[in-house]
Design a protein that fits this description.
This protein is an alpha+beta fold. Helices cover about 50% and strands about 20% of the residues.
Amino acid sequence: MPPEHSHAAPPPATPGAGALVEALDVSFRLLRWAMAALAAVYLLTGLFIVPQHERALVLVFGRITGEGDARIRGPGIHWTLPRPFAEIVRIETERVQTVSAGELPAEGAELPPEAGFADPAWDTFFLTGDANLLSARWSLRYTIADPEAFLFRFRDAVGLLEAELNQAVVQTAARFDVEAALRTDVERFRAEVGDRLRERIRELGLGVRIERIELVGVRPPAAVAHAFEAVVQAEQERSRQMSEARAYAARRGQEAFGEAARTVAEAEADRDRWVASAAADAAVFRAVLEKERENPGVLRETLRQDAIRRAFAGVGHLWFIRPGEAGRRELRVLLSPERRALMLPGDR
């Protein structure tokens, strides 16, 4: 019998078997390195770059990763698990985007008489505080301030923003009369629509920042457009006439001021001249008075003679009649030198 614990001898090794084992070992080592390289490449696909004008959110199994401010990836290089474990959601936050609301009917378009408020065309109008209808076209320019709220808090944030803009226009228009909303106070109308919309966005937490709200155009219904145009023309005519009246009043006022200044200047000149003349006469009278006091009667006679001489200076013939002797009167004629030159020698 063979021994109880006998072992069979291994078959003798052949050169072909050793080469096969060595080849398999090398293949497995290469496969491991290839798997490691593929795993590294796969992990490197989780690297992503966020440009300056963008923000990114990383969803791992459908949930946003990170806490606080880290939930929103800013500009730079970031890493996350590759797909399909993670998803990168990008959104532009610095680009100004636009939402439009309202419509302007075509020029001359009118609603048919049988059309009621259920007609879709009535959706282009809003009601003012004095029960008038206006149509308007609005443009809202905004940027995204909170990407997470804008992307995930609402199903259609852009549609909601447009609806809130329409609602703000309707509510604000109810506080304005048609003239203010259409012409006289358009800027305040636009500003109040913006204030109301900003307040509503804060309440909803929509995650957008309003840059500007523009009223592209506003128009009354075509059926009453001619009445509004007549009012505008009347106001323009009134403004023109008032401007002309103000210009005429200003011109006449300047002329009146000029004439008044000239009259006052002439009056002041006359006053100064008369005052100076009166002062000169007073000085002469005072001097004469002093002379009269020094020589009573002499100056008076001198002045009388001087006055007579000035009075007779322009007279050609002087006739003097004075009493003569024994009640007779004597007539004497004073002739000018020219008259005496014409007399005969015997008559002189």
